Automatic annotation (TrEMBL):
It is a multi-pass membrane protein. Its main location: membrane. One of its GO terms (cellular component) is plasma membrane. Pfam families: 7tm_1. The lineage of its organism: Eukaryota, Metazoa, Chordata, Craniata, Vertebrata. InterPro entries: GPCR_Rhodpsn (IPR000276), GPCR_Rhodpsn_7TM (IPR017452), TAAR (IPR050569). This is Trace amine-associated receptor 7h-like. Belongs to the G-protein coupled receptor 1 family.
Length: 327
C-alpha cells in the first residue's frame, strides 16, 4: 500500500505551524545566486571607490560631490548588506529569526529612502547652480550641504521606523507561519511619501533645469565670438555647470528608470506574490541602480577614472596624495 509523501517543512518539530519548503529548479537557483552575488560584489566595490575618492582628494571636496558621497554610502550599504540578504531571502526558509528579518527591512527602507532624498538634493543643487549661478556659492555652502545630508539620513531612519513600527514592536506578527520573513506596511502612505512627492520634485526641478540649460547653451553659442576676455571665466564656469547638470541628469534618469516600475506596477493594481519571478525582477531592478551609479561616473567623470587609477596603483598611499590633481 502506497503512503502519501509528507511535505517537507522548514521546522519539522513545529508540525503545522511551520512553513513549507519550496525549491527552485537547480539551474535557475544557481543562475540567480551567481548573478546576484556578482552584482553585490561589484556594487560594493565600485561605490567604495567613489567613497574613497571623494573623501581622500581635496579637489573633490565640493558641495555637489558631498551629495554624491552620501549617495555612494547608501549604494555601498545596498551592495554590502541588502543584496546579500536578498540572496538569502531566495532560500526556501528564513532561519535568522523575526527580529533580524525586521531589521533587514529597516535597513533596506533606510537606504532606498536615503537614495531618493539624495536624488532630490542633487536636483535642488543643480537647480540653484543653473537657475541662480551668481548666488550659488553663497546659497549652497559645504556646511549647509552637510546639514542637509545629516537630515536626509535622519529622515530616512525615521521613515523606516514609521512604516515598520508594528513589526518592530511585535516581530513576526505579519508571518503566517514559522520560517517566513514578511512585513506589513502602509502602502498608501509609502506611495505618497516614498514615490509621488520625491519623484514629482525631481521631475519638476530637472525640467526647469533643462529649460534654463538649453536657453543658456543657445545664448553662449550665439555670443561666444563676442565674449570679452574679462568675461571668459564666467562663460567657462557656465559651461562647467551645464556639463555637470547633463551628467547628473543621466544619473537621475537612470534612477527613475529603476525606481518607478515597482511603484507603477503597484499603482496598476497588479497583485505581486512574494517569491515570483515578477517580484524578483522588480526588486533586482530597484537595487541595480546602486550598481549603475558608479558605472555612470566611470564613463562621464574623468576625475573618477583618475582617482581609481591612483587607488588601484596604490599612489594614494604616498605622502601628500590628498593634494593630487584629479580634475
Amino acid at each position: 500500500m502506497e503512503t502519501l509523501e509528507e511535505p517537507e517543512l522548514c521546522f519539522p518539530h513545529l508540525l503545522n505551524a511551520s512553513c513549507r519548503k519550496y525549491a527552485r529548479p537547480h539551474t535557475e537557483a544557481m543562475l540567480i545566486y551567481v548573478l546576484l552575488s556578482c552584482i553585490s560584489l561589484l556594487t560594493a566595490s565600485l561605490n567604495l571607490l567613489v567613497i574613497v575618492s571623494i573623501s581622500h582628494f581635496r579637489q573633490l571636496h565640493t558641495s555637489t560631490n558631498l551629495l554624491l558621497l552620501s549617495l555612494a554610502v547608501s549604494d555601498f550599504i545596498v551592495g554590502l548588506i541588502v543584496m546579500p540578504f536578498q540572496i538569502y531571502l531566495k532560500e526556501p526558509c528564513w532561519h535568522l529569526g523575526d527580529l533580524v528579518c525586521v531589521l533587514f527591512y529597516v535597513l533596506s527602507f533606510t537606504t532606498v529612502c536615503a537614495s531618493t532624498v539624495n536624488m532630490v538634493l542633487i536636483s535642488v543643487d543643480r537647480f540653484v547652480a543653473i537657475c541662480d549661478p551668481l548666488r550659488y556659492s553663497t546659497k549652497v555652502t559645504q556646511w549647509r550641504v552637510k546639514l542637509c545630508v545629516v537630515l536626509c539620513w535622519i529622515y530616512s531612519v525615521l521613515y523606516s521606523f514609521l512604516f515598520l513600527y508594528n513589526d518592530l514592536k511585535k516581530p513576526g506578527s505579519s508571518n503566517s507561519c514559522y520560517g517566513e520573513c514578511v512585513i506589513n506596511i502602509n502602502g498608501a502612505l509609502d506611495l505618497i511619501l516614498g514615490f509621488i512627492i520625491p519623484i514629482s520634485s525631481i521631475i519638476i526641478l530637472y525640467m526647469r533645469v533643462f529649460v534654463v540649460a538649453v536657453s543658456q547653451a543657445r545664448s553662449m553659442r550665439s555670443h561666444v565670438a563676442a565674449v570679452k576676455v574679462q568675461r571668459s571665466l564666467t562663460v567657462t564656469v557656465q559651461r562647467s555647470e551645464l556639463k555637470a547638470a547633463r551628467t547628473l541628469g543621466v544619473v537621475i534618469v537612470v534612477f527613475l528608470m529603476c525606481y518607478c516600475p515597482p511603484y507603477c506596477v503597484c499603482l496598476s493594481g497588479y497583485d505581486i506574490t512574494l517569491g515570483t519571478s515578477t517580484n524578483d525582477f522588480l526588486v533586482f531592478l530597484l537595487l541595480s541602480n546602486s550598481c549603475l551609479n558608479p558605472l555612470i561616473y566611470a564613463f562621464l567623470y574623468p576625475w573618477f577614472r583618475k582617482s581609481v587609477k591612483f587607488i588601484v596603483t596604490l599612489q594614494i598611499l604616498q605622502p601628500k596624495s590628498k593634494e593630487a590633481v584629479v580634475l
